[in-house]
Structures are given as structure tokens and as C-alpha cells.
């Protein structure tokens, strides 16, 4: 077993997987996770804090939202979790907790339902959480030009936009790598700017 | 109402019964915080209810996050958080909070080093 000195270094990190309902978030998580994706549920009652003003749930309702997540052991002391966001974006109470301390987010997009991810992108921009856009190619079909998708989403030119196949482990791995590289490059730019 | 999953929700009837109605944990614990059974927890002699035994067994092998504990026990996250926080306060569990990428103020070197570890880990997959 680990000595006390070892276990004090143990830590975890998380990446948020967001996108509209049915876009393939759990499929993406499952393609790289070392465990079968698990589901955790959160209950919001009237006692919950951080309830968004726009919340559509009546005051005293008890609402359960489910999130699927997976796990990747990076090394002995570091475990990465991938959390899929609840399918419906109106349950913002859970999103605050999901993004707190996250490395960044992957916005998984279905070009047939592009508008599904507008509110998600707004949320990440507002919270200043780095994100990239991964266009899920169902059946391997790349139906749209990535620049057209960038324009339609009205996102900044430096936000990575890429194709992916959420079912494919290697493809998902490349998306995760791209996100972490992007976050690192943002940090380096910021550090250079400060000094 | 359950969204995004077809998991059985029979355990949600009175979710906070196992915490005797308490919904506020003694300690805020992140979703991804890692939980490990301590030697005191492993000894088994300080354990209270059935839930405590389940958690001690669950976290006695490899590290488990709060989210995993909740999922594997089929209890809501808030319930798991109250249980784990109580057990941590009693010295039965150790909770390893995530380091945080921006919490290190200064030059952010701790966060950067962590990100580089994540990156090389992903490349090795």
C-alpha cells in the first residue's frame, strides 16, 4: 500500500462532456473510460442553494437529474473523471458543481441540431471555462465544413473545432488531448502576458 | 423524474433517511474528490450502520471518487456526501480534494504541472 507521503499527493481532475440530449455524450465517455460509465443522481429540493433565477422548476419541487461519468487512471496518484452533463440544460444547479475546478469542457455537437448547444456554449463562456467543439460524425459522415460550423456557433477563432466519432476510443482520446493542449496553451499565453 | 438514464430509482423514495434527514454535510466534498479508507476505518470497530461498512469496503481497495461512491451505492450524491463527510470527521476515511488548476494563485505552476501529467497520461492511453 501507499505510504502516507504518497497518498498525500493523490489527486483527481475532471473534464466536462456537454451537448444536447442524445448527441452521444455517454457513448463518448464510455469509449475511453476504464469502467462502464456510472450514473450518479443529484436531487434538488427547495433547500438547495445556487438555484438559477431562470430555473423552471417550482419552488418546492424535488427534481432528480442524472449524470453519467467515466474514469481514466492517469497514473498511480492522478485520476481523471469525465462527467457528462445532464441532458437538459435547464438544470443549471448541477452545472455549477460540474464546472467547478474542471480542466475544461468538450461540447459535443450534432450538426442536425446545432442550436441544442447554444446555451451550453453561453454558459461556458460566461464561466470562463475553456472548451472545444467536437462535431460527432454519425456513420462517419462529415456533412459540414468546420468553418461553417464555427460561424454558425459564433465562437472565437481560437476555440478548437474538430470532427470526432464518439464511439471510437482513439478519436475520443484525440479530442481529450486537444482540449488539454488548448488549456495549456491558454495558460502559457496568459503567463507570458502577465510577466 | 429522472433524466438521461434508466437506472432504478427505488432507493430515492426517502433519500435522506440514511442520514436521518440531514442534507448538509460537515464538509464540502467535490464530485471528483478521492476517498480512501483509513487504517481506523479498516479496523472495522468504529463503524456505525450498514452504509458505513459498504463505504469502507468500497474505498478499501482502489481510490473512489464521491461520485463513484454515490453511483455504486445507488444513493443521491448529496446523501453520499453527508455520509462520507461524517466518516471523514470520525477518521474512518481520508478525502483527497482535487488540486484545482487556478487555486494556486501565483504563477499557476502547480496547475500547469498537473495538466502536463494529464496530457502525457492521455497520450499513453
From TrEMBL, chain A:
The UniProt transmembrane annotation reads none
Keyword annotations from UniProtKB, A to Z: GTP-binding, Hydrolase, Nucleotide-binding
What Pfam families is this protein classified in?
Answer: ATP_bind_1
Q: Which PANTHER family match?
A: ATP/GTP-BINDING PROTEIN-RELATED, GLIDING MOTILITY PROTEIN MGLA
Q: Which family does it belong to?
A: Belongs to the GPN-loop GTPase family.
Question: Protein name, please?
Answer: ATP/GTP-binding protein
Q: Which organism is it from?
A: Glycomyces rutgersensis
Q: What is the lineage of its organism?
A: Bacteria, Bacillati, Actinomycetota, Actinomycetes, Glycomycetales
UniProtKB/TrEMBL annotation, chain B:
Fetch the Pfam families from UniProt: DUF742
Q: Which domain of life is it from?
A: Bacteria
Which InterPro entries would you find in this protein's record? Answer: DUF742
List the protein's name.
Answer: DUF742 domain-containing protein
Q: Provide the species name.
A: Glycomyces algeriensis
